[in-house]
Every structure is written in structure tokens, then in C-alpha cells.
Automatic annotation (TrEMBL):
Family: Belongs to the pseudouridine synthase RluA family.
Highest taxon of source: Bacteria
Keyword Membrane: no
Keyword field: Isomerase, RNA-binding
Active site: 164
PANTHER family: MITOCHONDRIAL RNA PSEUDOURIDINE SYNTHASE, RIBOSOMAL LARGE SUBUNIT PSEUDOURIDINE SYNTHASE D
Function noted in UniProt: Responsible for synthesis of pseudouridine from uracil.
GO molecular function, one term: rRNA pseudouridine synthase activity
Protein name according to UniProt: Pseudouridine synthase
Stretches assigned to the RNA-binding S4 domain: 25-83
Length: 343
């Protein structure tokens, strides 16, 4: 049995237009009122690069907003605890850490580093702005210019899926529209296999398990993991209770003192699915800057400086119908972190 509480947190990007009734006002003060958060929280979003003003990063939290300005907030840009440390390169340099795992004329599989956003906010649609952005999209366009126009959104060239900024691991990028359409169909039909390594807080007793809380959105735009109220499957959840069906399977690989190392497979691709599900399961992921319990001791989260979530396995069908499978090793910083934990 899982807990029966709602877990509301910011997830999806939001865009606001400053109304005509607002006189010139500080960005942080106006944003705090628009989002219903404290001014210090608004400042943190701005300082973390999660906020754009008319398509550009503001110089400071005290920048002025005026009527009809456009303010966009991308919560995936919020850094993990301790991420802004002197021994880590700036985000623009993290593009150099992208590793090509395999490429064909139709697609390229890459290993995305932690700290690099998959794409800029949706209101950034200019090709040069995207190509020069400190994102995977910028890296893709600069290295594979033919991906411009491939896909559904300008800011996500060739991307049929995403990976959270602070997560690392495998992503597939389509170089041609035909491959993009084939991948999108496979993601929709849930035939793409995605496996992750994750480290959760606490001791998970079951060796294997399934989390099937539907994921929903509240009236204020925040996400909620709905508790199961009766037997739910991916086929009948829509008729039983609100929320989009989401299925996460896990296998315990090793137990440490106060932590559990897992392999996770998702059968659906909801926003922050693994993070929300394990938070709802009362075992939030180590290093998660959004989904955590306030009473939880997070010394180790700050020590790690990123979320412990790595997409290590990806499999899909190429245009010939052949199954293609790729693997990525656990990054050195995650492996070293595990090595330092008492078993």
C-alpha cells in the first residue's frame, strides 16, 4: 500500500503576460505574486536561470516588468542543491561534455551530462538563439544543422523525448522527419524501452515493485500523484479516477544505510514521472531539488550536488524495423558517491 496524500509541485513550463493594470514593478516581486510563492523563492528561480523576460534572461531579480511583457518560467532549470560549485564548469561549457554513443544517417544517440537542459523555453524560437543556447538543442543544431525543422517544436530539434536537466544519460535525436515520426509513434505505443539507475532515500523493503499512481495537474498548474483508490491498470485508470496513467517498475540492486540503489523502468513518459512516483512512494530521489520531504536530512544531497538519476539503457526500432539498443555506464560522480556509502 502507498501513502494517500496529494503531492503538489511545480513542473511544466509556464508563460505569463504582464497585465495592463500593472505599473512598472520589480520582476521578483511581480513573479512571486503571479506564482503565489515567496519573494525569496522567486529570486531563486531567477538566479537559477529558470525565468526569461521577453525571451531573454534577466540581468537581476530587480529588473523591471511593464505591461505586456512576457515572463516565462521553466522549472526544469532549477539546479540541484550544491550544484553551483566552483569545480563545476558553467552550463555553456557543459555542451562539450555531450558524448555521441552512436549515429546513423537517420538518428544519433547521445549521452547527456547532468546540468545541461535538453532545450530552451518554448518561447525561444529563433534558430540562432537556440543554436547558441546552453542546451542540448544548441549542441544538436551546431553539430547536426540538418535537424532544424525536424520534429514538432523549433526549440527541440529532432527530439521525440526529453531528459530532466539535472539527470544524465541516453537520448535519441532524429536527423530526419521520417525517423522522428517513427520514434514518436513508438513512444506513443510504449514500445521504446527506457531503464534508469536511481538512488532513493530510505530502505525500500520490496526487491521489486510497481508504482502506478496516475499523475495529474491541479488548478494552479502544479503536479499531483494521485493515490490508488482501487485496482488500477493502464487500460482502466482513466475511467476509475482522475489523472494520466503512469506506470513505473523498479528492482532493488543494492541497499545501503538509509539509501536504496535501484534500476527503474517506465512504461509511460509523464513529466518527472520517476521523481514524482518515488516522492509519492515516500522514497524521494537523492539530490532532487523539487521533490523532497522538508523533514528529510539532505546532507548527502548537497554533497552529491545533482540528482541521482541516470538513463542507462535505451532501445527502439530503426526505420528498417531492426531493434537498436544502447547502454551508458553510471557517471563517475555517481559511482564514486555509491562507493562512499556504508552498506
Amino acid at each position: 500500500m502507498f501513502g494517500a496524500a496529494d503531492f503538489w509541485l511545480f513542473t511544466m513550463p509556464e508563460t505569463f503576460t504582464v497585465p495592463d493594470s500593472v505599473a512598472a514593478e520589480r520582476l521578483d516581486r511581480w513573479l512571486a505574486g503571479a506564482l503565489g510563492i515567496s519573494r525569496s523563492q522567486a529570486e531563486r528561480l531567477i538566479d537559477n536561470g529558470a525565468v526569461t523576460l521577453n525571451g531573454k534572461l534577466p540581468r537581476k531579480a530587480g529588473d523591471q516588468v511593464v505591461p505586456r511583457d512576457t515572463v516565462a518560467v521553466d522549472y526544469s532549470a532549477v539546479r540541484s542543491p550544491g550544484a553551483a560549485t566552483a569545480d563545476k564548469p558553467p552550463e555553456a561549457d557543459r555542451r562539450d561534455l555531450v558524448r555521441v554513443v552512436f549515429e546513423t544517417a537517420d538518428y544519433v544517440v547521445v549521452d547527456k551530462p547532468s546540468g545541461l537542459a535538453a532545450h530552451p523555453p518554448e518561447n525561444v524560437a529563433d534558430r540562432l538563439a537556440i543554436e547558441t543556447s546552453a542546451t542540448l538543442s544548441g549542441w544538436v543544431l551546431s553539430r547536426y544543422p540538418e535537424t532544424w525543422g525536424v520534429g514538432e517544436y523549433a526549440n527541440r530539434p529532432g527530439m521525440p523525448h526529453r531528459l530532466d536537466k539535472d539527470a544524465s544519460g541516453l537520448m535519441v535525436i532524429a536527423r530526419r522527419q521520417g525517423m522522428f515520426s517513427a520514434l514518436k509513434r513508438q513512444f506513443k505505443e510504449r514500445t521504446v524501452e527506457k531503464h534508469y539507475y536511481a538512488l532513493a532515500h530510505g530502505a525500500i523493503e520490496a526487491d521489486t515493485g510497481t508504482i502506478d499512481f496516475p499523475l495529474d495537474r491541479g488548478p494552479d498548474g502544479r503536479m499531483v500523484a494521485r493515490p490508488r483508490i482501487e485496482s488500477v491498470t493502464l487500460k482502466n485508470v482513466a475511467s476509475l479516477q482522475p489523472g494520466k496513467a503512469a506506470l513505473t517498475e523498479f528492482t532493488v540492486l543494492k541497499r545501503f544505510v538509509n539509501f536504496t540503489f535501484l534500476e527503474v523502468r517506465i512504461h509511460s513518459g509523464r513529466t518527472h514521472q520517476i521523481r514524482v512516483h518515488f516522492f509519492a512512494y515516500n522514497h524521494p530521489l537523492v539530490g532532487d531539488p523539487l521533490y523532497f520531504n522538508k523533514k528529510l536530512r539532505r546532507d548527502k544531497d548537497k554533497e552529491l550536488g545533482r540528482i541521482f538519476l541516470h538513463a542507462h539503457s535505451l532501445a527502439f526500432a530503426d526505420l528498417s524495423g531492426e531493434r537498436a539498443a544502447y547502454e551508458s555506464r553510471l557517471p563517475a560522480e555517481l559511482q564514486d558517491f555509491l562507493t562512499g556509502l556504508p552498506a
